[in-house]
Specification:
12% helix; binds 2-acetamido-2-deoxy-beta-D-glucopyranose
Length: 344
């Protein structure tokens, strides 16, 4: 009963941490709040968890989005689909949503695009007022922008707030305004980001650079900055990545079956119910490390569990067995006594 309950807790924990197993999870995306008529808008729909292949579909205000008039949707890699509107105008305003589906289920995320000069208010008088004000603003900003004409402007990007160790994440650094060619560079906490282990940086097109981290861990935490520069100047945007801290392991209590006769098989599960992967499992008997031998074997059955099996118990099997679990944050251990019937 206790084991059942504990298995249920463990299962719930994994489900809660990683989402229902294999069902996609999408990184939220946002359009820049500084989009003026004629600027370029682009967002990416990036899956951070789940099993490929994924089928991506985009819609605008509930209608399937068609490749048309400067709107293009492309698959960047197995995990990412990008939407580009090469020049936004009043018709571009709307609620854009991306759906990523696989055999297990789907996730959907949406973002509003509001072109600065054309907030579609529904109210005619307000609209007129907006248009007038915006016309003035456009004239004023046109005057201003003569000065910084062609200097790149980047849209904002964000990392998912619920990233857990082992998840995938990717963000898009997209130029919304300015003259190509651009040079993109990424840094983390002020240091140039080098492509290493799980980090990759790729330019999607002349206007966009993608940063992907295939498996985040505690080392991934930091302030990521993208800089886009051209001959006229540069712009920078930053976002914080923070992997959820789950802490040191907690091991579930376990017990040997009470009535073991000589020759019977004994097995126990050492299950972690809390903590950050990866875990290292170690088995001890009366305080001494156990080695795989003489009918004793132990193996990790998944990231969170190790099984100890004694194929045929005898007098030598009696003892106090400990499972010790260690991760980067600390360790925990549980013990159980094995006593074979009639032998002491
Ligand atoms: C945008 O669309 C999504 C999905 O269709 C919906 O959940 C969300 O409420 C919409 N947002 C707004 C502001 O209309
Ligand atoms: C991240 O880095 C940028 C650029 O160096 C800086 O302007 C910003 O304040 C930093 N953000 C945080 C939260 O440290
Ligand atoms: C078994 O070993 C653990 C760890 O060394 C210890 O804390 C525990 O008291 C021992 N149990 C018995 C019954 O000796």
């Amino acid at each position: 009963m206790a084991l059942l309950w504990n298995s249920a807790v463990l299962f719930l924990y994994i489900v809660k941490t990683l989402g229902e197993s294999g069902v996609p999870k999408i990184n939220p995306f946002h359009f820049s709040g500084e989009l003026d008529v004629g600027m370029r808008a682009s967002v990416q729909c990036a899956v951070i968890y789940g099993d490929p292949p994924f089928e991506f579909s985009w819609s605008k205000d509930g209608h399937k989005l068609m490749d048309a008039r400067g709107v293009s949707v492309r698959t960047f890699d197995d995990f990412t689909s990008t939407l580009v509107i090469s020049k936004v105008d009043a018709d571009s305003n709307g609620n854009y949503s991306c759906k990523a589906a696989n055999s297990k289920g789907f996730d959907e995320k949406a973002a509003l695009l509001l072109v600065k000069a054309f907030f579609n208010n529904g109210n005619c008088i307000l609209k007129m007022a907006f248009l007038t004000i915006n016309l003035v603003l456009i004239l004023v900003s046109a005057k201003f922008s003569l000065a910084d004409e062609g200097i790149p402007k980047i849209g904002p990007f964000y990392f998912h707030g619920d990233l857990v160790v082992g998840m995938r994440t990717s963000v898009l650094c997209a130029v919304i305004f300015g003259d190509p060619p651009f040079e993109f560079s990424w840094s983390k906490d002020g240091h140039k980001l080098s492509e290493a282990r799980s980090i990759s940086v790729k330019n999607i097109d002349d206007f966009t650079s993608n940063l992907a981290i295939s498996k985040v861990d505690a080392d991934s935490n930091g302030n990521y900055t993208c800089r886009a520069s051209n001959s006229k100047g540069f712009d920078e945007k930053s976002a914080l990545l923070s992997v959820k801290e789950l802490g040191a392991p907690k091991v579930n209590p376990f017990n040997f079956f009470g009535e073991l006769d000589v020759g019977m098989r004994a097995s126990v599960h050492c299950a972690v119910i809390y903590g950050d992967i990866p875990f290292e499992f170690m088995w001890l008997k009366d305080g001494q490390p156990l080695a795989d031998s003489r009918g004793i074997s132990f193996r990790k059955t998944d990231e969170y569990t190790s099984n100890l099996v004694i194929s045929k118990v005898d007098a030598d099997s009696n003892g106090n067995y400990t499972c010790r679990v260690t991760n980067l944050k600390g360790s925990d251990e549980r013990s159980a006594v094995l006593s074979v019937k009639g032998i002491s």
